[in-house]
Amino acid sequence: MTDLDTLLGLFREVATDLTFRADAVDDQRADVTREMAEKTLGNDIYARYIAAVAPGSPTDVIDAQNSDDVPTASIATIRALYQRLYQPENMMIVIVGNVDPVKTKALIREHFGSWRHAGRSTAHVAVPAFQPDRIAPISVAALPQGRRTALMTVVMPTAPPLPTRGQQIDAMLLEMLVLRAVNTRLSAMQPDSPPGKVGLYIENGEQGHRLIMLWDNFAGNAWHPAIAGLARVRCAIDSGGFSDQEWDAAQRDLIQDLDRRTSVMGQVQNVELAKDLSHAFAAGRALIPPSALLRRAQTRLPAIDAQAGNLWWRQQWRAGVRHVRVESPDLAPMAGDGSALRASIAEASKTGCDGL
């Protein structure tokens, strides 16, 4: 409790009493500028991808990772931002550990009970939502030092959290199963490729969009067969579904993974649990540990058959806007106005089902 008392005192000082000494600000300014320089290319690649699949979302609108303001922002500007953001209505205190709840609450009241909003109240700016009507069917990136990848994505608004903890667990298990079954199909399509060359990625974005992405990190200039291969897999699952063998393998792998994650739960640092808990609380979701997922999986998986996965896949790919993207430095000479290249990408994505 003595350590917790000290920490809460430090947190209160950070939240309300920072002075922003000029030397400290300049030291951090140099560090942040250096970090931005090291990550500029990766940030640019990701921002351009988000601009294509989720236009209008915060990552598209605000280039926060490559800010031009860092080298020039005055201390007064930084202090004003701090005073606007660090207000009690924007904060939560999360404590994870073997603590006495009654004594802990008393300490929180002691340190933070007198904290009141300081200064003029400012209205919260609405977070911009992505604009699906601005998503083009195809996009191309030809950055000189960029990656070589083919991406087939469907993007949709983030759904509100399911109302009960059990429903959230079941939805997570089904998504985990589909992820494994699709990755099995993709790996079988290219058995000689290294791990990670092809795959499925699902992002439940905190910026108003959810995306499901198939990718193929092709070599050389093989973007055409990469797109065609992804399209064949997507179309085959959409029309024929998962095989019993794929689904059984996904279930076995999921049980093994959850069992492994449950066995190391005690090694997770409390600060990581606190971050996860705060994110879940802010999003209105339950914080579900691997052990709860494992218990549910052991009883529920026999009832979740391949047909459930097939239905999930079709619903997801038909619920959003589809987008195909090719990134390769080799595309620069072909880009021009882009129409011929886009026509070639569209042709590659036609597999007898419904194209894009």
Structural class: alpha+beta
Described by strand count, sense and barrel closure, the largest sheet is:
5 strands, mixed
Spatially, the strands of the biggest sheet line up as: 1-5-2-4-3
CATH superfamily label of the largest domain = Metalloenzyme, LuxS/M16 peptidase-like
How many separate structural domains?
A: 2
Architecture overview:
With 356 residues, the protein is an alpha+beta fold. The protein has two domains: 111 residues, no CATH class; 212 residues, Metalloenzyme, LuxS/M16 peptidase-like (Cytochrome Bc1 Complex, Chain A, domain 1), CATH 3.30.830.10. It is 53% helix and 10% strand. The chain is built from 13 helices and five strands. Strands 1-5-2-4-3 form a five-stranded mixed beta sheet, sandwiched between helices. The model has no long low-confidence stretch (mean pLDDT 90).
Structural topology:
Elements: H1 2-16, H2 22-53, H3 58-61, H4 75-85, H5 101-112, E1 138-141, E2 149-157, H6 165-189, E3 198-204, E4 209-216, H7 223-240, H8 244-263, H9 270-283, H10 290-300, H11 306-319, E5 321-327, H12 332-335, H13 339-348
Parallel strand pairs: 1-5
Antiparallel strand pairs: 2-4, 2-5, 3-4
Task: Give a short synopsis of this structure.
With 356 residues, the protein is an alpha+beta fold.
Question: Which descriptors would you attach to this protein?
Answer:
5-stranded mixed sheet, Cytochrome Bc1 Complex, Chain A, domain 1, globular, 2 domains
